[in-house]
Amino acid sequence: MVTIYGIKNCDTVRKSLKWFDAKGVENKLHDFRVDGIDVKTIAGWLDEVGGKVLINKRGPSYRNLSDTDKATLEQGGPAAAENLVANPNVIKRPVVDFGIPAPSPMTKLGWRTCWCVTISHMTNSCRVYLDARCLLNESAVF
Q1: How far is CA 7 from the centre of its chain?
Q2: Cys staple from 134: which of 37, 56, 113, 116, with CB 3.0 to 4.6 Å?
Q3: Total domain count, the chain
C-alpha cells in the first residue's frame, strides 16, 4: 500500500490521491494535522534528501516562521526535525511512501523519467517526493 503524507486540503495531495486511485493503486493519506508526524520520521526524510527538497520555502507558512526557526531549518539535524513536527505546513507535499524496498534498476534516472521526482532510498522503504508537474503528465507509468 502506498502512503501519501501531506495535508488533505492541499491541492497537490488531492491530485496525487486521485492519480493513484485512477491507476488502481491502493493508497492511504497520512494527514500531518490529523495523524501527526514524529521526529524520527522527519529526521529520516531530512537525512535522505535534505532540507532543499523537503522544506517548502515558497509558502506563507515558511515566510511566517521566525528568523530563528528558519535558521534552525537551514542547519538541519534533530532541531530542524523538531521544528518541522511543530510546523508541518512547511513540509513540501506530498511525500509518497511505497512501503517497499526500491528496486535497483529503477534508481535515479528510471524514476525521474517516469515520475519527475527526487527519489531516495531507505533500508525498508522507498519514498518519493513528487513534483506537482508529474501528476499532470499522463505518460507517467506506475
Answers
A1: 11
A2: 116
A3: 1
